[in-house]
Amino acid sequence: MLKKEHLLKEIELLILEIENKVINLHKNCNIANFEASISGNSEEYKKASEFEFELSKFYSDKNIYAKLKKFAQMEIDDPIIKRQVDLFFNDFAKNQFDEDLHKKIIDCSTHIEEKFSTFRAEANGRNLTDNEIDDILKYSTDNEELKITWEASKSIGKEVKDKVIELVKLRNQAARILGYDNYHQMSLKLNEQTTEDLDKLFDELDFLTRDNFTELKSEIDIYISGRLKIPTKDLMPWHYQDKFFQQGPRIYEVDYDKYYKDVDLVDKTIKYFESIGLQIEDIINKSDLYEKDKKYQHAYCTDIDREGDIRIVCNLKTNHRWMSTMLHETGHAVYDKYISPQLPWQLRTHAHIFTTESIAMLFGRFASNPYWMNQMLNIGLENARKIEKLSHNALRLEQLVFSRWTQVMYRFEKELYINPDQDLNSLWWEIVEKYQLLKKPEGRNEPDWAAKIHMALYPAYYHNYMLGELLASQLYHYISNKVLRSNNPEFECFADKNDAGEYLKNLFFNYGALYNWKELILKATGEPLNPKYYSLQFVV
Question: What's the pTM?
């Protein structure tokens, strides 16, 4: 007994030593990244890089790592202490290589991030923001303008390609020092996933969606051919109404944007979450939600300190896309906010990156739900019923298209880390043609793969969006059918139903990272992660 007590005391002291160092560094790093992203300021990026370096330098401490490794292999009766040891071990394991290599990885990553943040595509003598590119690709029917704009959106790939390959090689170098074949394999393992499990899952999803997508792609081609007056055999990637064919064109006549044209997206977001018992005004007040020069053009949510300082970054426009994004990012935010403050610092975060993605996706989908739109925008029950079927078809299209896009991202990235010296430009288009059924432009040999920000800055991450979609469907089914016992489970939107918020707070958010993702899903829904609910919602 004394021996066990002594061991627990030793572990608790080690955890305290780690916390005393990392908590402030973590907070300062998050603040610097936030300030850099909303300003584009080089000094802020430099500051963020320095904090990241300090953090990773501490995580590379070999003495602490050796102790964690020893403790991780022991039987520890206290589940909270055991979980902290396991997660800290993973954090330190990722960083067991020399300081110079650390510095190179962080500097290279920061350089690429700054390039993406300040990049503006040039087309027809104009510098275009991402929002402007999206609008042209979405609404223009001028073939030449579409081609020029699409090509311009890919030009960031040329600017960062060499640095991205350099970064991949540096990460691989670090992974091999730790005994892994490559960084992709290591990253999955240290985030409680395996290549084998993901290969199996993505093969299953390929089988599940292939025939439905092939049918749908023919429908899409006929629609675009008619819209642009181009034969289907001549359709090219710039005709599909977004940069990467990841969302899919609007072939169903649901003009969502007209419903959001004069809507205060922030006000609707606050009121909706309030209606299910989730308060977010404190989050909104600290957030940066509108476009400005040199600001990061995408969207994200950050938990600054795991003590309630949660912020959202957006570039809001009054349209459907940004309503969905605002709901998505607020999903991340409420997850972070309602994690139990009684948990130790290391466990006051999500169980896995895809569990927080699932919540973000669960809420993001409501921007396309006609009954949510009726509840929150007062579009009228008659209008909601009119667009019900079309809305479902539109969301189904979006999901099937996205599912095939995640196949591209997962499979290309895995190959990128296996061999970064191969012909990546050709490999990208081989995978795109196979899974998205898009035609490679004749003679094109450009690093289009490098134009996707996640490829450089969020390694071994993108597949989690798809896992998030699967879990979002599973949670949606569980809440609609078992918590709310909804009369209309296919179009349930939770609005004004406090039980939905209570369920999420108490049986999902509250646990933080106390359980691994498999245990959390089993605890919250009574079964493991199951693709059948995604299939029921979007494939059948």
Answer: 0.89
